[in-house]
């Protein structure tokens, strides 16, 4: 891309662990208005799950920024990834794209990311941060905002906030959450969505507008650019295995692990190859709540191995993964 070309818009999608970022981005990528979007997925840990679920034909393959966090000031992965996307777009090695969507890890503080867009001259010439979209869990959001400084920062820096899973919470709780978010981010547009496809489609309309043009904003004004968290407090454990196990065995082992570490695991997610199923199974848990497992239509790549990732504030993820492997490995 020449220096004279208009900077491409970047949408930053953030939100605490399990708020629904990947679900929203998947629906955005299926929307014709977002055709031709490049996607950068940031995950904490060595194995990425989310980018496998966001492969779309006709768009550049999702690029994973693994085992780190783009919000770390000393981590230049985001800048390098944007440079790599620009280079490969110009040499034709990936399909052309009209915008970039960045999905941050759930424990990312957006402030250093916004600072990078302001301070990096090359990024300023080639990209412009169009909007920060923050997902907030309608069931767990209020408590998460009070107990997790990253979640509060994600809300405070948002241009638009989408309260997800509203159909799982009562109306009064959603109203209280809206009030809390309004106080935290008085400048942000706050939208509410349940799980219904039609409702989410309607709520995507403002995001379509945000994604179709660059909206230069002074994201630095009124924002604190310090780090709101210490990544040493967040640990991840991952396991990849090739053996095919029965779903009841896997489900029982996961239930035992979550029960034994109740209140200490922040997130569990996985993509599993299960006996007696010809399609991959997605598992997803937020804190102590497991979402119903779902079948994908197809494997997103040629990799048919099962993979599980656990995230915790302390070493619970490592302990839990060790227990899970101890239970399942002898069955391989």
TrEMBL record:
The record places domain CobW C-terminal at: 234-328
The family database entries (InterPro entries) matched by this protein are listed as:
CobW-likC_sf, CobW-like_C, CobW/HypB/UreG_nucleotide-bd, P-loop_NTPase, Zinc-reg_GTPase_activator
GO CC annotation: what is one?
cytoplasm
A GO molecular-function term, please? hydrolase activity
Signal sequence interval, chain numbering: none
Reactions catalysed, semicolon-separated, are: GTP + H2O = GDP + phosphate + H(+)
Q: Which SMART domains match?
A: CobW_C
The protein's UniProt keywords, in alphabetical order, are: Chaperone, Hydrolase, Nucleotide-binding
Cross-referenced Pfam families: cobW, CobW_C
Keyword Hydrolase present in the record's keywords: the answer is yes
Record-linked Gene3D superfamilies: CobW-like, C-terminal domain (3.30.1220.10), P-loop containing nucleotide triphosphate hydrolases (3.40.50.300)
Q: Which CDD domains match?
A: CobW-like
Q: Which family does this protein fall into?
A: Belongs to the SIMIBI class G3E GTPase family. ZNG1 subfamily.
Purpose = Zinc chaperone that directly transfers zinc cofactor to target proteins, thereby activating them. Zinc is transferred from the CXCC motif in the GTPase domain to the zinc binding site in target proteins in a process requiring GTP hydrolysis.
Name of the protein in its database record:
GTPase, G3E family
Which organism does this record belong to?
Rhizorhabdus histidinilytica
Taxonomically, what lineage is the organism?
Bacteria, Pseudomonadati, Pseudomonadota, Alphaproteobacteria, Sphingomonadales
């Amino acid at each position: 891309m020449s220096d004279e070309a208009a900077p491409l818009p970047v949408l930053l999608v953030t939100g605490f662990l399990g708020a629904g970022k990947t679900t929203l981005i998947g629906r955005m990528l299926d929307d014709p208005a977002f055709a031709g979007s490049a996607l950068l997925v940031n995950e904490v840990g060595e194995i990425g799950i989310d980018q496998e679920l966001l492969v779309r034909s006709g768009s550049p393959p999702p690029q994973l920024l693994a085992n780190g966090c783009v919000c770390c000031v000393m981590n230049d992965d985001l800048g390098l990834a944007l440079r790599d996307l620009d280079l490969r777009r110009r040499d034709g090695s990936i399909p052309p794209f009209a915008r970039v969507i960045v999905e941050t890890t759930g424990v990312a503080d957006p402030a250093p990311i916004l600072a990078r867009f302001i301070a990096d001259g090359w990024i300023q010439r080639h990209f412009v941060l169009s909007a920060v979209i923050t997902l907030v869990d309608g069931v767990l959001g209020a408590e998460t905002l009070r107990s997790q400084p990253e979640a509060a920062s994600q809300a405070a820096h948002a241009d638009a906030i989408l309260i997800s899973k509203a159909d799982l919470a009562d109306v009064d709780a959603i109203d209280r959450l809206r009030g809390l978010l309004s106080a935290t981010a008085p400048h942000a547009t706050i939208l509410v969505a349940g799980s219904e496809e039609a409702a989410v489609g309607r709520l995507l309309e403002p995001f379509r507008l945000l994604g179709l043009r660059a909206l230069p904003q002074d994201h630095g004004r009124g924002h604190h650019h310090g780090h709101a968290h210490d990544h040493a407090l967040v640990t991840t454990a991952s396991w990849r295995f090739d053996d095919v196990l029965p779903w009841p065995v896997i489900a029982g082992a996961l239930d035992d692990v979550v029960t034994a570490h109740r209140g200490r695991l922040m997130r569990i997610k996985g993509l599993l190859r299960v006996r007696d199923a010809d399609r991959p199974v997605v598992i997803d848990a937020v804190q102590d709540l497991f979402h119903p497992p779902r079948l994908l239509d197809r494997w997103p790549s040629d990799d048919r191995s099962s993979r599980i990732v656990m995230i915790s504030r302390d070493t619970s993820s490592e302990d839990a993964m060790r227990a899970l492997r101890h239970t399942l490995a002898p069955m391989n």
